[in-house]
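Hi P.,

Sorry for the delay on this. The queue was packed all week, but I finally got your sequence through. Input first:
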Amino acid sequence: MTGAAHGFDRRARARRLTVLLALLLMVMSVASLGWGAAGTSVWGAVADLAAGRALSPLDRLVLFDIRLPRLFLCILVGAALAVSGALMQGLFRNPLADPGIVGVSAGASLAAITAIVLGGLLPATVLSFAGDYLVAIAAFLGGWASTLLLYRVATRGGQTSVATMLLAGIALTALAMALVGVLTYLADDRQLRDLTFWQMGSLAGATWPKVLAAAPIILTALAAAPLLARGLNGLALGEAAAGHIGIPVQRVKNMAILTVAAATGAAVAVSGGIGFVGIVVPHVLRLASGPDHHTLLPNAALLGASLLLAADMIARTVLAPAELPIGIVTAILGAPVFLWILLRRHGAMGM
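Then the structure:
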């Protein structure tokens, strides 16, 4: 098979995969609406609405005030984490890269936990303005602040060193976790429960205001990501080679970092820490349809959303009526895949 024919076959396979992933997301969305301890049937509700019958107060509450906002938030967070992972892996040219590698998750977590433990010390005017969204606002601002700090550290003479950003991200994450340990020591029993549940990741508090707060930021980042596809494909050849073929390397790096900061910061702000989605989804898609970011990025959004919906359904029902934090589910599902990726790379390098 010639190179052109092979490339056409891979693109066709990637487009077929996009259709299948879109269908999967629709199926998972319908299943998520009908899945839960309450036993409310989405098909029964649709039949009632089609027949002109009013929904019962319980069905209306469960479907429209609990499951529907949770569905949309799950899709947004899953897509944001998966696309951020694909962007980071393309930027670092490493399938083990993750949004947390630039310190976004660490900075967001530290700011959120600071708000949980020390938020009561803030002036009354600040508390009244932030209301119930103090933790989410703090997480988003913490993610942005850590990203800007890392960007300043890694940028010299208008050029951003990816290696320096990686090392600085590791250092910042270690410092943030140490400070989180101090705050955990200072927290009381109620704060410890909130802190632990938030660190594990949860969508239990999904509401329409949270959806409306996160959606503009995440959707803007998801819309910007495909614009980076050509640049990330070029960076796969190396920065020098990418510059020679006309790729604006520094601009691509700047946009990728800011896009990841926006998407991951907003996701962490409304859901807490959810791991492994950003590592596993892009790597699986590269194996299935190749490394072309023109198809990898939209496919990552679709598969990331479907994966988080599946994890959320497990989290809601495995211990019903109690709820398992979704971060635990994604860790159980993602850790074996991550180990497989490591072993596969270990064998490929002949180490």
